[in-house]
Amino acid sequence: MAERLICASDAVAERSLAYRFTAHYGGRERNAILIRFQHKVYAYINECAHVPIELDYNLGDVFDLSREYLICSTHGAYYNPSSGLCLGGPCAGRRLHALQVCEHDDAIWLIDDSAPPLIENEIFSKHG
Ligand code: FES
User: Fold this and answer.
1) For a substitution probing ligand 1, which of 33, 48, 71 has the most ligand atoms within 8 Å of its CB?
2) pLDDT tens column, 56-88
3) Which among 5, 63, 95, 125 is least surrounded, fewest beta carbons within 10 Å?
C-alpha cells in the first residue's frame, strides 16, 4: 500500500474546518474532507449519504454548532465524525464513504492502494 501526502498535521485542528483534498475513489477523482476529532484524523468522500452533494456549503465547515457531529448543510443529516454513520436526518443509518488515513512525521497521509509510492524528493517538494 502506498501513502500519499495530504497535508501537514497542523493544517487540521481539532473539531475545526475540514481540510479539503481530492482522492481517487470508485474509479474517479473525488472531493474529500479530512477532519480531526478526539485527537485522531478521519477522512471521508465529501458526499452526503442522502443526495450525492458536498456536505459543506461553506468550504470546510462540516461540524455542527456543538462540534460533536458532522452535518450536511443541505437537509441537516448529522454524522458520527469517527465512523461516518448518519445518526439522524433523511439518511439515518447510512454512512459517509471513509478513506484510510494515518498521521506520522508531522503530516497526514492517505493510504491509497491506487497510487504509486512517493519517493523522498517528491515528499519534500510537496511540503515545500
Ligand atoms: S443532501 Fe445531505 S441531508 Fe440531504
Assistant:
1) 48
2) 999 999 999 999 999 999 999 999 999 999 999
3) 125
Could you tell me the sign of the dihedral formed by the alpha carbons of 85, 90, 91, 97, in that order?
Answer: negative
The predicted-structure confidence for 84-125, as pLDDT tens digits, reads as follows 999 999 999 999 999 999 999 999 999 976 654 445 445 445
**Interatomic CA distance for residues 11 and 6, integer angstroms:** 10
Nearest Cα residue to atom 1 of ligand 1: 51
Domains of the chain: 2-127 (2.102.10.10)
Q: Whole-prediction pTM value? A: 0.88
